[in-house]
Amino acid sequence: MSDYSIKIENLGKKYIIGHETQAGYKTLRDAIVEGMKSYAGFIFRPFSDRSADAGSEEFWALKDINIEIKSGDRIGIIGRNGAGKSTLLKILSRITEPTKGDIWINGRVASLLEVGTGFHPELTGRENIFLNGAVLGMGKAEIKRKFDEIVAFSEVEKFLDTPVKRYSSGMYVRLAFAVAAHLEPEILVVDEVLAVGDAAFQKKCLGKMEEVGKEGRTVLFVSHNMGAITRLCEKVALLGEGSLIKFGSANDVVDDYLKSGVGSSAVRKWPEISKAPGNEVAALISIAAIGGNGETSGSVEINKSVIIQMEYLVKKPDQILTPNFHFYNGEGTCAFVVRELDEKWQDRKRPAGYYKCQAVIPPNFLSEGSYVVGAALSTLTPLTVHFYERDAIAFQVIDNMSGETARGDYAGPMPGVVRPILKWSTQFEAREL
Amino acid sequence: MDAGGNGEKKYTLHISPGKAELNYFKDLWRYRELFLFLAWRDVLVRYKQTIIGVLWSVLRPLITMIIFTVVFSKLANLPSNGVPYGIMVFAGILPWQFFSNSLSDSGNSLIGNSHLISKVYFPRIIIPTSSVIVSLIDFLIAFIIMLAIMILWYSFVPPMSIVLIIPFLALAFLASLGLGFFVSALTVKYRDFRYIVPFIVQFGLYVSPVGFMSSIVPEKWRLLYSLNPVVGVIDGFRWAILGASQPLWWPGVAVSFAVSSILFLLGFKYFRSTEKDFADVI
């Protein structure tokens, strides 16, 4: 059986983290001082164990990873920050060496960990095409052959002989991606970075990757965007703290990931009042995102409603209080802010005790993607914030293209913070032209 | 090592600890085009502001030459065996400048390209080598223009033996590469190393026979003096350009050559042993 394109066996990568260096790298001065210290130590305590250096610590960024990827597979790699995704890509791209284990690769690998690697601002667009092409692994002949195509794709013909430092950021990214898009590797390794940039660019990126995958080439794609992952990839590898937690069909793994709350928690509780966010007036007890079935859920389908529920304790009676929620999307844009609008309690002094409030986000309202919710309790006049827990919980809105959605039968990316279903009407009359 | 008995012989790349070192030369060959592209980029960027770039590479040695000629010839009255002192300095200053530029540029080259190193794979040795090549091109341009100035100013007719500078240039290249490998790798590891390099360069200018003939060094110290590889290079340049008036002391050349070769081999070895960690520490 040799139709695998990547085979990873017992892969491990160890880093030594130094604690004493502030800048993150060593200086000769430090090395000399350290050297003298250990030399002195050797003289005074020649038999002590010096292998355990107090200043540094081993850290396994990846441990015992085993994956077999068939050629033509489109594999997504997910996991929260620090799970080892980037390290795995770096090892696959040979930027860094593994500490143990083996990887066998069949075919030419091109890795896009960044858009426009090797671009030099002083050089012209034309020169940078050649440079970037070479950096990404194309030969001179290959770049020459594809040059016109790349230029056409980038839409910067007019500025080919202008130094790229004078390009707008959009032009820069278009040119960079045009070069990357014309790579013809058997295996394409792509990091999240490609999915940033403006919406049109993202669309182009994802479209191109879909195309690459359909041509029977292997794609490895790291992303936090579960929507893109489930759309693009058939199989997903979930990493956590350096280990492979799950490897299987995209929907299953993404679902698991979101449900397990490994990604970001859909519920947070503060069992001890003394440690909870709050002041002498009130304290937060819990906050949760609740899905259509009434259970706490980190992932919600786009055409189902989601309830944000907050429990809090009022310690000091006779205060006018207003709970409010703040919603931020994956890019950090504030989607909206809501405040409690319950007639019973507005402008009314509240007795001390336990409160539970819920806000319902209607179906087909938020766009797909991840959302972070901040929960606060305030008095509006004079404005006093009793607690504000930023990033308290997070949930994911997913669009698995079933049921009635604003997407209709369109499968491509749809940017925007909201995705409402609007009432459309079209009138027609025949006219002479 | 290779997949054992699993029958999986068909793969194009095997990544494993220490494996990169095994295929080192194969990889160097595979990435030869990237090497040319990076060298081409460095030259292009350097001469992008064409007038300034060329002017600068000539102005610096020219001014140094004038100052050295005044100080060493007119004030210190050092000998030049009958040839114009200016030409003698010219034959010393250019190889020195090649050497010192190589050293300072390659020292900073890896840090300057850290974004490349952390985002793509290629044999890292390409980067310091490319800076040395840029210095070499700088040298060639400056050499041709300076030679023209010498011919016009001193009515100096270069002898045919001037082609013999080539082996000495190669010697300078070897020494520059060797030290460049060391310095660039050390700068990645110890960031404060970059403050040491300018000091070495400045110090080197005075201990190398740039402004004077190495024959003024007492006979018994000359072998020791030749441990500085630049001594052999500059002596060779003077011999090739000025002919019989600057007899070449061959034992010195042999020592310089030996030192350069050792530097090159050790530098290469050190670079190779550290380069796999560059992406992690840079």
UniProtKB/TrEMBL annotation, chain A:
Instruction: Establish whether keyword Iron is in the entry.
Output: no
Cellular component terms, GO, for this chain's entry? Answer: membrane
Where does the signal peptide begin and end?
none
What are the UniProt keywords, alphabetically?
ATP-binding, Nucleotide-binding, Transport
UniProt-listed InterPro entries: AAA+_ATPase, ABC_transporter-like_ATP-bd, ABC_transpr_TagH-like, Bact_Polysacc_Export_ATP-bd, P-loop_NTPase, Wzt_C
Q: Where is the ABC transporter domain?
A: 45-266
Sample GO molecular function, one term: ATP binding
Concerning PANTHER family, the annotation shows: TEICHOIC ACIDS EXPORT ATP-BINDING PROTEIN TAGH (PTHR46743)
User: Which protein family is named in the record?
Assistant: Belongs to the ABC transporter superfamily.
Q: What is this protein called?
A: ABC transporter
UniProtKB/TrEMBL annotation, chain B:
Q: Which top-rank group of organisms is this from?
A: Bacteria
Q: Does the keyword Cell membrane apply?
A: yes
> What InterPro entries does its record include?
ABC2_TM (IPR013525), ABC2_TM_bact-type (IPR047817)
Write down the Pfam families for this protein, in alphabetical order: ABC2_membrane (PF01061)
Q: Which GO terms describe its biological process?
A: lipopolysaccharide transport
Residues passing through the membrane, by range = 51-73, 85-104, 125-156, 162-183, 195-217, 248-268
User: Does the record's keyword annotation contain Signal?
Assistant: no
Can you say where in the cell this protein is located? Cell inner membrane; Cell membrane
Parts forming coiled coils: none
Recorded GO CC terms:
plasma membrane
Q: How does it sit in the membrane?
A: Multi-pass membrane protein
- This chain's protein is named Transport permease protein
